[in-house]
From TrEMBL:
The keyword Cell membrane applies. The keyword Phosphoprotein does not apply. This is Cation:proton antiporter. It is found in: Cell membrane. The chain crosses the membrane at residues 7-31, 43-63, 70-90, 96-113, 125-144, 150-174, 223-242, 254-287, 307-327, 339-363, 375-397, 403-426.
Length: 557
């Protein structure tokens, strides 16, 4: 096993060196002619533009916090306002977004997604990210074809581009106006797989345009291979890097490793002809759940999460500023009727894909409340990926410039209109209401979780020989007092409010989820004991059947 790990480590290091050499070659090529005065002037102008963007982003962050306005919407409006202040024009580069920014954003979202939460909502997520994208893009394309007179290929491309949702904007709203965790998980999970499915469809349509033929069976087969291939690439790199994270447990090298995995998963997927986005999603989920949140020290975990939070924040800041800089208001005004028609088209497509599909969820999963469906419908905000896909359209596509103007205008109005109205809708729906009982409960749960986490870290330090036992016992007893106090207060709270707890849907659902996890843990322990031949299978069969009955009862409830 150590030999395999050594080879794996060498492979990852070699992969990182390859990417680093590519970046260094581009950097050296770009800076080798800096003796040219005109090139030096351009570099100086670029640095000035970068400083201006950073100052503007800082001002927008402060103003949006003060006036409780969506940060990303403020960035887009600021980009529109400062276009003339920049010494040179800066535009969106589709290859930069697709090859650098997109993997960073997807990986950052994936490592912060709990697989157990994702598993509990996987059915509505797959419905929205799979059939939902197909239905939404198809209806949008049909309405654009007959409403704007587009031919089929441009209409289908526009339909797929406008089926992509920008979850950054929606999650930014959720940070300002809290929503139930299950709804937030559905939104995050849909976005993780929505981008991958949309990019695969986009590539298939371009392939049909270049070859001039399409066979449904072959198209479905290729779609399956591309997605499954991306999953396999993500699994391989995810498990490999999770093991290396545990082995090194050094914050700086872990940062480099995770960056290499995020960018490398995408590039390897693209190189072998499978979905790079799906590969990044799967790799990020495994690294986050089996590496960062399980087997590394608390200090390394905090450093890694802080690094990726800053990376995601920085990338989003520049993307949304560049969206504002890229949009020409004169062109937008001239194409306004077509833009409004496109907004109506993609909203109709979203409506038909959200409400019927989520209504059918009740037949095989917990129903999605109708008020949540309103948020999922209006939260269909467009963003940078839509613009990047529009810019990456080949020159041979009929009406390419018209499509780009259409998508750019749609993205702007979506970010401003839906970005500003979504917080208002969430407040009107009263999704963020927390009872006094729930607030008290969660405050005590926070105290309990933090104290137990600190005790676990103390145990690790004692085992590693960092702490002498006398200091360990003194510090652990301090946390044990906090644990005991929180447990007693929680027990008293539940005993006093037993009736209200039983009648509260949110609390009942939370307790059901806890009971389900406990039952699954019991069943897992029994299966592990059977696998190791510690207990005979006949002895535990009745216990396993009893656990299964309890799990089914929880599902029925």
């Amino acid at each position: 096993m150590p030999i395999i790990e050594n080879f794996a480590y060498l492979g990852i290091v070699s992969l990182g060196q390859i990417f680093m050499s590519c970046f260094m070659q581009q950097f050296i090529f770009a800076t080798s002619n800096t003796t040219n005065p005109s090139l030096e002037a351009k570099v100086a102008e670029l640095v000035i533009a970068l400083i201006i963007l950073l100052l503007v982003a800082t001002a927008v962050a402060l103003i949006s916090r003060q006036f409780r306005v969506s940060y990303v919407t403020g960035l887009v409006l600021a980009g529109l306002a400062i276009t003339e202040l920049l010494p040179q024009r800066i535009g969106l580069d589709p290859s930069l977004i697709l090859n650098l920014f997109l993997p960073i954003l997807v990986f950052e979202a994936a490592i912060n997604t709990d697989i157990s939460r994702l598993r509990s909502t996987v059915k509505p997520i797959l419905l929205l990210a799979g059939p939902g994208v197909l239905i939404s893009s198809g209806i949008t394309a049909m309405l654009l074809k007959f409403g704007l007179g587009l031919v089929w290929i441009p209409a289908l491309l526009a339909g797929v581009i406008l089926a992509v949702t920008d979850t950054v904007s929606v999650i930014a709203v959720f940070k300002e106006v809290p929503v139930p965790s299950r709804l937030s998980t559905i939104v995050e999970g849909e976005s993780l797989f929505n981008d991958g499915v949309a990019l695969v469809l986009f590539s298939l349509i371009l392939q049909v345009n270049s070859t001039g033929k399409f066979v449904l069976l072959n198209g479905l087969q290729e779609l399956f291979v591309v997605i499954v291939g991306g999953i396999l690439v993500g699994l391989a790199l995810g498990y490999l890097s999770a093991g290396l994270l545990t082995r090194s447990d050094d914050p700086l090298s872990s940062m480099l490793l995770t960056v290499a995995v995020a960018l490398g998963s995408f590039q390897i997927g693209q190189f072998i002809g499978v979905s790079g986005v799906v590969a990044v999603v799967v790799a990020g989920l495994i690294v986050g759940n089996m590496g960062i949140f399980r087997n590394i020290s608390a200090s390394s975990r905090i450093a890694l999460l802080s690094f990726w939070e800053y990376a995601g924040f920085g990338v989003n800041t520049f993307i949304f500023l560049l969206i504002g800089l890229e949009i020409d208001l004169i062109t937008l005004w001239e194409s306004l009727p077509a833009v409004l028609m496109a907004i109506v088209a993609y909203q109709v497509g979203r409506l038909v894909s959200v409400y019927p599909l989520l209504w059918g969820v009740r037949w095989f999963d917990r129903p999605i409340p109708f008020r949540w469906q309103h948020v999922l419908f209006l939260g269909n905000i467009k963003g940078s990926l839509s613009m990047a896909l529009a810019l990456s359209l080949p020159a041979i596509i009929t009406g390419r410039e018209r499509l780009i103007a259409l998508v750019f205008g749609t993205v702007l109005l979506s970010l401003v209109g839906q970005g500003l109205s979504l917080p208002w809708l969430v407040r009107q729906l009263k999704l963020s209401h927390f009872s006094e009982f729930r607030q008290q409960t969660e405050e005590l749960q926070v105290q309990l979780m933090t104290s137990k986490a600190a005790q676990d870290e103390l145990d690790s330090l004692l085992k590693a020989g960092v702490l002498p036992k006398s200091i360990y016992e003194e510090m652990r007893s301090t946390y044990q007092v906090k644990v005991a106090a929180a447990e007693k207060a929680l027990r008293d709270l539940y005993n006093r409010r037993e009736e209200n707890l039983a009648n509260s849907d949110s609390n009942r659902i939370k307790l059901d989820a806890i009971r389900r996890r406990l039952l699954l843990a019991e069943k897992g322990a029994l299966n592990e004991a059977i696998r190791k031949r510690l207990i005979s299978e006949e002895i535990v069969q009745s216990r396993v059947r009893n656990i299964d009955r309890q799990l089914l009862k929880l599902e029925d409830d």
